[in-house]
Amino acid sequence: MASTNGQEVPPPLQDIPTAKEKKYDRQLRLWGAAGQVALEESHILLLNSGAGVTGVETLKNLVLPGIGQFSILDSAIVTEADLGVNFFVEDASLGRFRAAETVRMLEELNPGVKGHAITETVDTFFDVGKGEVAPFQPYNLIIVAAPIEPTWLTHILHCAQALHIPVFYLHCVGYFSSFAVTLPPAFPIVDTHPDPTATTDLRLLKPWPALAQFAAEKTAMLNESESSMGEEDDATSKEREAAKARRAHDKAHIPYLCLLLHYLEQWKQSHDGNVPATYKEKTAFRNLVRAGDYNEENFDEACTAVLRALNPPTPPSSILDILSAPETHNLTPETPAFWLIANAINQFYTKHNQLPLPGSVPDMKAESSVYVQLQNIYKSKARDDSAEVLATVRELEKETNRPQHLAVDAKEVENFCKGAAHIHLVRGRAFQTAQSDASLRFGDGAKVLAMELSMPESLVGLHLAFLAWDRYIATHSTSAAPEVGGERLRVPGGATTSGADDDDEAYEADVAKVTSIAHTLLDHLITESGTGFLEDPEYSEARERVGKFVRELVRAGGGELHNVASVTGGLVAQEVIKVVTRQYVPVEGVCLFDGVQGRTQVLRV
Amino acid sequence: MAATLQPEGVARTLNGHPESEDSTTSPRWSHMNRLLSRQGAYTDPDEYEPGATPLNNISNSRILVIGAGGLGCEILKNLALSGFRHIDVIDMDTIDVSNLNRQFLFREKDVGSPKASVAANFVMKRCPGCTITPHVGKIQDKDEDFYMQFNVVICGLDSIEARRWINATLVSMVDMDNPDSLKPLIDGGTEGFKGQARVIFPTMTSCIECQLDMHAPRAAVPLCTLATIPRQPQHCIEWAHIIKWEEERKDIILDTDDPEHITWLYQTAIQRAKQFKIEGVTYSMTQGVVKNIIPAIASTNAIIAAACCNEAFKIVTSSAPFLGNPGQNNYMLYTGDSSVYTYTFEHQKKDDCPVCGNLPKGITLDPESTLGEFVESLAERPEAQLKKPNLRTEERSLYYSTPAGLEESTRPNLKRKVREILAEGEEFVVNDPSFPEVTLKYVVRYGT
């Protein structure tokens, strides 16, 4: 270590947390420093409207963990009704712009976060008429709260897709909420944080030489008969006792991995070189291991692991899809690093018929030094595999004339190799929007959705109810010039133009209208999925369920219940964090929350 | 028998008070009022009377919130914005800097102040008309009269011990002749991207003790592994924590919030790790192991806290079916790390529950094992989780962990074999002074 003036400086305390690390400690344990950096580099845009609580609750859950910047576009003025349901306005906010007030009070939550208020409408701020994408460029992710003028939503979605900006579209009405997600057309996630038990890949059926040799050494004693030990003529009984105890100790500390490899060799000898494959064979194999010792913990561990650890490491089909994706094979000089590495992994897989080794070893009963040796055998194989992939990546860079500044980071290759079996690719597609004309198509999602219709527990009816709710708004918005806060949008069950809020007749009329739209959508869905899919009584029951969802939605008249808004704000924020950090596995399609039954469902639409 | 204890009765027992007269007409509550003034799609017109009744029920109920941390802050906000006006909150903790990433009612300047009072003041200032009474202290220090004041209890706790205590207390308070004595208990819990929300109607539905085995404690690493064959960085940290501190600094009480103490443990663990060539000991991991840190984020807390308050709102207003109605779902499990997934189900009440049941639980004991081995296992047995157990049959004391005198006189029994001390078919009970209302009844079966 460098020391100045020959003076010994005491070594500094290593990795004592900084003030920021202390504040964010509980979340850094989940998404780590890289996730935090991604969060801090993000700028989230909320297009707020209507009751406007859910979007603000979402931002609360993003400001707290330290999103870089956020903007709220909202032309509404704070009313009394906001004070009863939104935590980020106060009595003094009455009559002021809701965007400015909510930004100010959200900013108080975290001095490291910058907020911006935009008090214009979507129409003027993004110059919807001109149809340019440029105004969307500053944002990494856009959250749109319903209700919104359908043509604006279409414009936002169009521009965001062109720029590969993820869009969330959320509804929160009474006891129900939903959010739909549109991600970029290819959205890969390397760090999916799979369950640690699912990631263990020990390659016991195909041990490489270093592992096989190590196991043979550690289990050599199992081949010697007990009587041959310590039988020298001059051995005293005391020495014999000591030798016996040593042997018992050693046997009880053979790592279970080595035990399994040892008994696999035995098994193969009596089974024409085959490993146990069927459930029945594995059970028989487990009995063989069990017979090795009936009490010791390491034999227990080995028996427990038999069913899990003796599966050939076949990559899941989702991984094979990535390896055979067009992007993997049509490389250009600017191809994102992910696809270049995928190509290299594919070459590795083709050559070795297995993915690179992840290299981690679960804890097991063993002597410290033996366990560390075993760890090193796995780690060193993982390093070799990763180095082979990296070498291929470097060749591909040359072949594709990749510019120097786009050189793939070796660390990225290493991470990819470690998590290769659990990488996730989202093929983002635009969510459905309900327009005033009858153009809504369910497309290739129709079959899946129609299947859901016959399931009493499914929330597909709620999805249809929300689509119908949107279409009601699309067909009932007045042609008057846009007013502040989207008030020209008429929400079913809400205040009528005459202001007669409690008008029972108008309420029932709205229930009937939205129900009728929802039932039409239901019929379209069945038609699109193939004729005669749903027969009575399933058909009538599905209609009745949809009708109930609609009635409960219209009951709220577009109002938000704070609790439901807060649940939804939590869900949306969580998904935003996943998308922004590119960690964990995000929702694809639409996520519905039913606050009556206390449950959620995700529909791939 | 329990006809007067129907959970729907909770809403009906709240009498109107004049102070709530404005809530039905105030534009402040217009979102909620519109919904509550209409019959719902899932309400029974004979049961639900739209309009003033549900609104009055909200403004007149008294809610107790246990815990003012990650869940507690959210719960207080949610209740205030659901129209509740009489809330009490109890928490013994003070604010730490690591709370600020999610406990949104606290600021840098509040670090060191009691959570309950800072949280109560913040919400009262933001939501005029809502009164929140803070209690800085332990739930165990409050008596039955205190808990009897409330209509609903909502827990946002990180400790199983506190949950078991309040659950047992609320179960023991139920008086079949007094419907007011039945306090719905709503419990939330989170860990990283996962969590649960559950509703308990004490004595009527599955209670927290019935569900205890769903939260089995993590198996502790055996001491001999720590002492002789460490393999993981965590083993080295636990060695520094459990063994080395006792050896070298036993006069200093370990304070896991003192950076000097953590640094000492960290450096001791590093030395140990070097000796065994184990990689991966970090300061952050040291802190995590010795403080048993559970990752926590704002979003999961928001989801679980609001799911709990949504149930409270439905119970008090009857405006929609709620979790916990006997025979219905009472438990929502939430997982958010891979897509979004909830599993909402009915957890069944157990007849042999040590709190709300009365049947003994059959237990298979090896007659050749010692009583001591069984006593030791009680800390980790999912249905028991008792660290200071006292065991007795109807006639004899088997073993008492406390007080010291009884411990000494019963200690020799620990070495005796089960067959010498318990007959097959014999009943015995286990208590723990930490949970006075919990009594585990066992009936012995011999076996291995």
UniProtKB/TrEMBL annotation, chain A:
Top-rank lineage group of the source organism: Eukaryota
Q: Where do the TM regions start and end?
A: none
Q: Does the keyword Lipoprotein apply?
A: no
What processes does the entry annotate via GO biological process terms?
protein neddylation
Q: What is the species listed in this Swiss-Prot or TrEMBL entry?
A: Baudoinia panamericana (strain UAMH 10762) (Angels' share fungus)
| Pfam families to which the protein is assigned, alphabetical | ThiF
Q: Entry's InterPro entries?
A: APP-BP1, ThiF/MoeB/HesA, ThiF_NAD_FAD-bd, Ubiquitin-activating_enz
What protein name applies here?
A: NEDD8-activating enzyme E1 regulatory subunit
Q: Which portions of the sequence form the region Disordered?
A: 222-242
Tell me which family the UniProt entry assigns to this protein. Belongs to the ubiquitin-activating E1 family. ULA1 subfamily.
Cell inner membrane in keyword set: no
UniProt GO molecular function: NEDD8 activating enzyme activity
Q: In which pathway does it act?
A: Protein modification; protein neddylation
Task: Output the Gene Ontology cellular-component terms.
Answer: cytoplasm
Q: What does this protein do?
A: Regulatory subunit of the dimeric UBA3-ULA1 E1 enzyme.
Keywords associated with the record: Ubl conjugation pathway
Q: Which residues form the THIF-type NAD/FAD binding fold domain?
A: 24-601
TrEMBL record, chain B:
What keywords are assigned to this protein? ATP-binding, Ligase, Nucleotide-binding, Ubl conjugation pathway
Annotated stretches, region: Disordered: 1-31
User: Which part of the chain is the E2 binding domain?
Assistant: 363-447
- Record-level Gene Ontology MF annotations: ATP binding; NEDD8 activating enzyme activity
EC number(s) reported in the record: 6.2.1.64
One cellular component term (GO) for this entry is: cytoplasm
**Its annotated pathway?**
Protein modification; protein neddylation
InterPro entries noted in UniProt? E2-binding, ThiF/MoeB/HesA, ThiF_NAD_FAD-bd, Ub_act_enz_dom_a_sf, Uba3_N, Ubiquitin-activating_enz
The record's catalysed reaction(s) read: ATP + [NEDD8 protein] + [E1 NEDD8-activating enzyme]-L-cysteine = AMP + diphosphate + [E1 NEDD8-activating enzyme]-S-[NEDD8 protein]-yl-L-cysteine
- The highest taxon in the source lineage is Eukaryota
Give the GO biological process terms: protein neddylation
Q: What class of enzyme is it?
A: ligase
Described by its record, this protein's role is as follows:
Catalytic subunit of the dimeric E1 enzyme, which activates NEDD8.
Per the similarity annotation, which family is this? Belongs to the ubiquitin-activating E1 family. UBA3 subfamily.
**Listed name of the protein:** NEDD8-activating enzyme E1 catalytic subunit
Origin species, per record, is Baudoinia panamericana (strain UAMH 10762)
